[in-house]
Q: What sequence folds into this?
C-alpha cells in the first residue's frame, strides 16, 4: 500500500496540465474563460434563440470544413451522447440486419442494443481478440455495417473503408477519433460521435456526419411506418438540425465549448494537423514503453495502435494502481486502464489539447515514481 504523499515529484516533472483522461478528457481553460465571459447573454437562455442557433450553425459549418465534407453531406445533432445514437440507429437506420465489428467495450455495446431489438434480425457479429481489430465481411443479407474508428477501452484503431453493396450503409463510431484522426468521408455514410474527447467539450450530445444515402435511409424507414419513439427518431433530429437546433433541450455549455474547439482545430491547420499532433504524442509514449524495463504497449501490432488512447501494460511487479495513486497526489490524473479489462495498465489520452511537453513530463514522472516504489 502506498503511503499518501510519500513520493513528491520535482517541479520539472510536473506537467503544466495534469489531465490525461481518455474521456471525458481535457477541456481547455481558455475555452471555459470564453464561456464565462458570455455572462447572462448565453447560458440560461432558450436553445431556440438566434444566439444559440448561431452556435449550432457554426458547429455544423465548422465540421463541414474540418472534414472537407462533400456538399450533399449533412451534419445532424441530438441530445444524449453516442449511447443514445445506438438506440436511434436501431430504430431509424437498420432496415433488416446489421453487421458489427467487436473489439472492445463500446463496439460490443452497440451490438447488444441491436441484438435486443426484436423488430430486427439478429445481427452478424465479427469479433477479434482484445488488443486487435477484425475486418468487415461483405454480406448480401446486411444493410448496415457498424464500425468503430477507435476503441477507447483497448486503444485499438482501425482504418475506415467501405464494405458491402451500394445499398448498405457504413456507420462509424468515432467518439474517440473525431477531431484527432483523419478519415475519408466517401468511406462512410454516418460518422457519429460525442464531443467529450478530442472535441474538447462535455458529454450529453451526439453529432453525425451523414451522407445522402444515410438521409435517404432515415426518410424511407420513417415513411414505411415503423414506430419510433420521437426522441430517437432521426427524422426529427434531421428536421431540427436543419433549423440549427435540437429536438429537445441541449446543454448550452456543451455547444459553446464544442464550437470553440472546432474553431481552434480549423484555425490550427485542420484535421490533418490535429492528427499529426496526436500521432507525435502517441508515438513518444509507445517508444518510451518499448524502451522501458517495466512497461510495454498493450496493442502489439503497431499498425493497430491508437494515436489518441495509448494503453500500456505494466510488469506485475509494478502496481498500476499504486502508480496512479501517487501521480494523482501530484496532480496527474485519469490514467486508469479500462475497468472491465482487469489488467495492470495505464491508459493515456494524447488528444490535440495535450501538449507534447506534458507528454514528455508524464513519462518521466512515471519513471520517477516507479523507481521510488
A:
Amino acid at each position: 500500500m502506498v503511503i499518501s504523499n510519500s513520493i513528491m515529484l520535482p517541479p520539472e516533472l510536473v506537467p503544466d496540465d495534469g489531465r490525461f483522461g481518455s474521456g471525458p478528457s481535457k477541456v481547455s481553460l481558455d475555452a471555459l474563460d470564453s464561456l464565462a465571459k458570455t455572462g447572462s447573454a448565453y447560458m440560461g437562455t432558450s436553445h431556440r434563440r438566434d444566439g444559440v442557433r448561431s452556435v449550432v450553425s457554426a458547429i455544423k459549418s465548422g465540421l463541414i470544413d474540418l472534414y472537407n465534407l462533400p456538399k450533399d453531406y449533412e451534419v445532424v445533432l441530438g441530445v444524449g451522447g453516442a449511447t443514445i445514437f445506438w438506440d436511434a440507429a436501431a430504430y431509424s437506420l437498420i432496415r433488416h440486419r446489421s453487421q458489427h465489428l467487436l473489439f472492445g467495450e463500446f463496439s460490443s455495446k452497440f451490438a447488444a442494443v441491436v441484438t435486443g431489438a426484436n423488430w430486427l434480425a439478429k445481427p452478424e457479429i465479427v469479433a477479434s481478440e482484445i488488443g486487435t481489430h477484425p475486418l468487415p465481411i461483405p454480406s448480401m443479407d446486411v444493410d448496415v455495417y457498424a464500425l468503430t474508428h477507435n476503441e477507447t477501452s483497448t486503444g485499438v484503431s482501425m482504418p475506415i473503408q467501405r464494405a458491402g453493396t451500394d445499398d448498405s450503409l457504413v456507420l462509424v463510431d468515432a467518439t474517440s477519433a473525431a477531431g484527432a484522426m483523419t478519415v475519408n468521408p466517401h468511406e462512410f455514410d454516418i460518422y457519429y460521435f460525442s464531443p467529450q474527447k478530442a472535441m474538447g467539450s462535455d458529454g450529453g450530445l451526439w453529432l453525425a456526419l451523414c451522407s445522402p444515402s444515410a438521409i435517404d435511409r432515415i426518410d424511407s424507414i420513417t415513411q414505411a411506418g415503423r414506430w419510433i419513439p420521437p426522441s430517437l427518431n432521426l427524422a426529427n433530429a434531421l428536421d431540427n438540425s436543419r433549423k440549427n437546433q435540437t429536438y429537445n433541450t441541449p446543454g448550452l455549455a456543451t455547444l459553446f465549448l464544442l464550437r470553440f474547439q472546432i474553431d481552434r482545430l480549423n484555425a490550427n491547420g485542420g484535421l490533418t494537423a490535429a492528427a499529426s499532433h496526436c500521432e507525435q504524442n502517441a508515438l513518444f509514449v509507445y517508444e518510451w514503453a518499448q524502451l522501458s524495463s517495466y512497461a510495454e504497449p498493450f496493442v502489439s501490432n503497431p499498425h493497430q495502435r491508437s494515436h489518441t488512447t495509448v494503453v500500456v501494460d505494466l510488469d506485475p511487479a509494478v502496481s498500476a494502481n499504486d502508480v496512479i495513486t501517487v501521480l494523482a497526489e501530484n496532480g496527474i490524473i485519469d490514467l486508469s486502464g479500462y475497468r472491465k479489462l482487469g489488467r495492470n495498465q495505464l491508459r493515456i489520452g494524447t488528444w490535440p489539447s495535450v501538449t507534447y511537453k506534458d507528454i514528455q513530463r508524464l513519462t518521466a514522472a512515471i519513471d520517477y515514481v516507479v523507481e521510488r516504489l
